[in-house]
Amino acid sequence: MRPILLHGHLRSLTRIRYNSDGDLLFSASKDNKPCVWYSANGERLGTFNGHNGAVWDLDVTHNSRYLMTGSADNTCKMWEVETGKCVYTWETRTAVRAVSFALGDEKALFVTDATMGQQSTIHIVPIEADPEDQTSDVLRTIVVTGAKVTVAVWGNLNRTIVTGHEDGTITEWNPDTGAKVKSSKNHEKAITDIQFSADKSHFMSSSKDHTAHLTDSKTLKVMKSFVTERPVNSACLSPLRPHVVLGGGQDAMDVTTTSLKGNKFESRFYHAVFEDEIGRVKGHFGPINTLAFHPSGRSFSSGGEDGFIRVHHLDEDYFEFKYDEENFDDLPQL
Amino acid sequence: MPSSELEIDESQIDFSDIYAKYSVPEPAGFECIVVVDGAPMVGADKEQKLIDKIKSLFKNIGGVKDAVMPMDEGGKSKGYLFIEFETPAQAKAAISAIDNYKFDKNHTLSGNAFDDIEGFANVTETYVAPPTEPYVEKPHLRSWLKDEYARDQWVVMKGDDTGIYWNNKGEMPDLVHSRPKWSDMYVSWSPKGSYLTTFHKQGVVLWGGPEFEKIVRFAHVNVKLIDFSPDEKYLVTWSHEPILMPNGEHHHVIVWDILSGRQLRSFPVAGAAMKAPESKEKGPGATVKIDWPMFKWSHDSKYIARMTPGAEGAISVYETPGMGLLDKKSIKIENLKSFEWSPTENILSYWTPEPEVGNIPARVTLIKLPSREIVRTKNLFNVVNVNFHWQSNGKYLLARVEKAATKISRTHNLEIFRMREKDIPVDVVELKGTENLTNAFWEPNGDRFALIALEGTVKINVHFYEMNSAGSVVATAASKKKEGGSAAVAANVGGAKLLKSLERKGINQVIWSPKGRIAVLAGVRAFQGDIEFWDADDMTMLAAGEHYTCTDVEWDPTGRYLVSSVSWWRVQQDPGFILWSCVGTQLTKQSVPQFKQILWRPRPATPLTLEEQKAIKKNFKEYSKEFDVVDAKETSKIDKAVLEKRRALWNDWVSYRRRCYEDWTREAEL
Amino acid sequence: EERRLASERVILIEKRREIKEYEAAKKIREDEIKRIEQARKEAEAEKVRMEEEVRRREMEKIAQIRAEREREEAMKLAERIAGDGKNKNIKDELMNLDTKTLMDKQLELLEQEKRDLANKMRQISKRLDHTERAMRRAESPKWEADHVE
Asked: Does the record carry Protein biosynthesis as a key word (chain A) (predicted)?
């Protein structure tokens, strides 16, 4: 099916995320204005105006009422999705690199960057039921020593926080004590994305080292590896099929020095279990920075360095494709 | 690799880091001491005189600190001297200079590093006790030819690693042997595949046998280019660093005997090639172009010839193994431009242009050796350039002639010499006046050739021709008639028939299968990497593919596989290689970080007689049945292995997901 | 009185005549309008008819061109399917088929060509590989002898 092109951003995309129902798609970009779109037809619902710098990350509450964004303008903001109004702003000392709502939407985390003599810091904040009551109170801050944090998400049942680092390390933290639980150097270069499976038992990590891994959350042991010949900027799991999607390209700096044809700006599908590449989806004119699978598994979206978001509805052929060795009856259904 | 011109673009290959990182350490010890052997044995009365004479041989090198000539009890010298120099570099230069130096009528000197002599001495000592030392057999240099699966090998350089592998079609290749930092530069095979050559600051080393043992090394500081004789008996090396000879000459080229490891003769390089090191020193960006091989071997390795261009032009032919000038004189050819050997006979082709004054035409000449009998000449007019393309059996010589139509515009035609026919008739093929011929490619052992022509600035045409089987009288007459020059495309002039013309934007090479019939059209280096497989029997395309920014394309020696590759030396993005079947099916694509080079190992000509070969071809059906069974088994084995692996992976996954599911439900209950 | 009556009658008659005249004039005017309207309508109808005629002719022409082209294509197709004129009957037969059938035939032909090419490619590689393997088998003892020498 023809992809839907969403062109509202003036600069490269940094993060796209679906809400839990999958009817909305949120996008953050370097152009300061996060957007929300109807995922079905690509119509733009609105923008969230107020940041003065690139927006690095965003997350949306389970009920889709509030959106949280982290920006290079040294703020983290919470917005009312329906009105587009900013309901609260946390002021920080450095850029906000990552944001994530905890299960239950009663707390959230945001990570500030390691720059200007500061170290990467995880801030865990309470989220009040009524934004009127929101204060700058912090439940806990965790100062991260060592390599700077590039991505951060809540783990299973809010018992852990998982961070990806610039040196390729993945670390698990206890949010209640602030202690480092586990750490594993699973990649050679910077981690660019971490996305969990629905049951949070495993997650995909992507890295500048040209690979993406499927990792067990409990042990941080790499179970599957997907190797490309380009930096991988994002990787996501299909909620429906045993497939993963990788997106990337060379670093933005090198793009201009090479011709378009040789570049590989494709979303690449791999079989999650057999690690075989099973297909590619072309389209972007620059590296793919962020990928997200629709909660239904029927479509996925990619956000590129070229400023476009592409929503791809998958063909019937795709759902019919199956290895003889796969037997889905064996798999437990969540 | 019978290429007449090897382009060494040193600006593209940066050796400095390699040299800096991996320079082989100097041998410890007496590196400043040179042992000069082969000197006359003299009494004490002449001792000092001889020492002085030998010392004087090094006056161009300088730095002689001391010279000692050991004398025996009888007061006679032992025939060798120790010369100590101030620096190891001087010592090294001295060895090169003195080795094989004719001191007088009866004495030829040899030079060795003292450290090497030490080594030899040790070897000798152990050798005198043969019972304890088992006889070491020379490695079987041809053992690889007996592979029971009839596979071929390739050598791959990636990063610092060099490895030799068996090609297993699309499956993982088997490693035969690999070494880190094996060569400081590139590697190359000898023409029959017996030796792998590695390059080092001090010289080249040949490796061979099942374990790739060191067979022989040749000391030539900073050697960059080599050329084997077709029979693998001799090796020519070139270095931009001159060797200072006792007579004050600077030598760049050395001819070696491979079996003995000895230097046969060294040569100075005349004219343009001498400028190479200087232009290199001008800094990055300076491109050095050297005609290589500079010395061209005859097909039987009996002669090696090189030319002196220009008004005082000549071809100098040297005879192996003595390396003396054939008949003690060069073949004088005024205004000589270029020459080539026939690949099967001792016949040389060369051409001379029209002089600016006088009414003499340009001329292509064929001369037989050693008789120097001129067997054919062909006069040509308004010639700008001629390139020779010999068909691999020496059946045809195609001369690609560029002519001046006006002061600026050029026309091209072909003069094809039929070497096997009486009086060597010449067919002429005219091309469209607007076409600039850029290259020609003979089908190996065949009668077909391909041309690449540029029309205007962007249009590229590929033409396929076939020589008519008999150079009939009619055809020759027709070619004569056409010699006046016709503007239109000559579809059937003389004895060459146009088979097909294609317009192809992205093609600059035609690479014929070594077995003929299949021609690969490719766009390499500056082109995008289009690759097309054509069947010349019916001129249809079998397959079209692409290897983006492809830099090299090479057939395996049997014509069963083709490798296209992107070398990191030229393109840093996505280096690696693709293995294709002979009909253009992509078998495997490997992306290899810092992939530099892949070379198929050549094979010697088959030892089977023509009858034996014919018998095998005739019985195709019989053995094919047998191989079909083997192949089917192999395929099903692979398929089964893949299937089983997938099953296991899937079962593991299912149990993992079940475990996760149980954990999840238990936690959900809490 | 009589005069008064007479004059009244005269006036009445006058009036009646006037009315009659007026009515006549009106009728004439109306008829005129009707006629003009009629003519206009007719002209319009004519114009529409003409336009339709032109369109029809154009359509016919296009259809004709298309048919011609189709026939040409069909001819080419038929020639291709029939081969080098060896099989004239098949060609004639094909010429009488409708385009849909021809298209199907072409599809079939393309499929066949694909199969033929794949077959040919398999044959070429098999012959090369198997011949090479047979050669190697015969060569092997000779290489061994080569070394022993």
From this structure: yes
Comparing CB atoms, the residue among A229, A242, A326 nearest residue B591 is A229
Nearest CB to C142 within list B141, B559, B607: B607
Most A CBs within 10 Å: which of B654, B656, B669, B670, as the mutation test of the A interface?
B654
Contact A262 B656 (CB under 8 A): no
Asked if residue B355 lies in contact with residue B335, where contact means CB atoms within 8 angstroms, the answer is yes
Residues of chain B in contact with residue C118, where contact means CB-CB under 8 angstroms, are none
Question: Which residue, B73, B107, B127, sits at the end of a domain?
Answer: B127
CATH of the domain at B91: 3.30.70.330
Which fold, A4-330? Methylamine Dehydrogenase; Chain H (2.130.10)
Look at A323 and B528 and tell me if their CB atoms are within 8 Å: no
Q: For A325, name the nearest residue in chain B, comparing CA atoms only.
A: B647
Residue B323, phi-psi category: left (phi > 0), alpha (psi -120 to 50), beta (remainder) = left
Using an 8 Å Cβ cutoff, are B186 and B199 in contact?
A: yes
Report the amino acid identity of residue C148.
V
Residue B111 lies in a domain: yes
Q: Which amino acid is at B322?
A: G
- For residues A137-157, give the mean pLDDT: 92
Q: Which domain holds residue B56?
A: 31-127
Task: Indicate the pLDDT class of residue B119, thresholds 50, 70 and 90.
Answer: very low
10 Å Cβ neighbour count for B99? 22
Give the Å distances, CA to CA, from B194 to A317, B138, B206, B608. 53, 13, 9, 19
Any chain C CB within 8 A of the CB of B581?
yes
Q: Note if the pTM is more than 0.90.
A: no
Would you say residue B587 lies in a domain? no
Domain end, chosen from B127, B162, B189, is at: B127
Residue with tokens 């023409």: B191
Compare all CA atoms of chain A with the CA of B572 and give the residue at the minimum distance: A258
Tell me how far apart the alpha carbons of residues A163 and A146 are, in angstroms, rounded to a whole number.
Answer: 12
Q: Kindly state the average pLDDT of the residues A282-308.
A: 92
The answer on pLDDT for A257 being more than 60 is no
Domain assignment present for residue B608? The answer is: no
- Look at A270-274, B99-103, B482-486 and tell me which has the smallest mean pLDDT: B482-486
Residue B92: pLDDT band (50, 70, 90) is confident
Question: Hey, what amino acid is at C74?
Answer: A
CB contact under 8 A, A325 and B656: no
pLDDT (tens digit per residue) in C60-103: 998 888 888 877 877 777 776 666 555 566 666 666 666 677 77
Percent of chain A at pLDDT above 90? 75
The alpha-carbon gap from A289 to the nearest alpha carbon of chain B, in Å, equals: 20
Interface test with B, best of C122, C128, C140 (most B CBs within 10 A): C128
**Does the distance separating the beta carbons of B146 and C143 come in below 8 Å?**
yes
**Are B658 and A261 within 8 A, CB to CB?**
no
Q: Residue B620 and residue C127: Cβ atoms within 8 Å?
A: yes
> How confident is the model over B343-387, as pLDDT tens digits?
999 999 999 999 887 788 999 999 999 999 999 999 999 999 999
> How high does pLDDT run on average in chain A?
90
Q: Which residue of B has its CA nearest to C118?
A: B542
Q: Which residues pair with A302 in a beta bridge?
A: A291, A310
The CA distance from B595 to B568, in Å, is 6
Q: In this predicted model, what pLDDT tens digit does every residue of C95-120 receive, in sequence order?
A: 666 667 777 777 888 888 899 999 99
Contact A242 B661 (CB under 8 A): no
The terminus-to-terminus CA distance of chain A in angstroms comes to 28
Q: How many domains does chain B have?
A: 2
Report how far residue A142's alpha carbon sits from residue A121's, in angstroms, rounded to the nearest whole number.
Answer: 6
Q: Is the pLDDT reported for residue C126 higher than 50?
A: yes
Specify the residue for token string 């003009």: C36
What residue segments make up the domains of chain A, in order of their start? 4-330
Question: Would the CB atoms of A332 and B661 count as touching at under 8 Å?
Answer: yes
B48 located within any domain: yes
Among partner residues A199, A273, A324, which is closest to B660 by beta-carbon distance?
Answer: A199
Reported as a single tens digit per residue, the pLDDT across B19-42 is 443 433 344 456 788 888 888 888
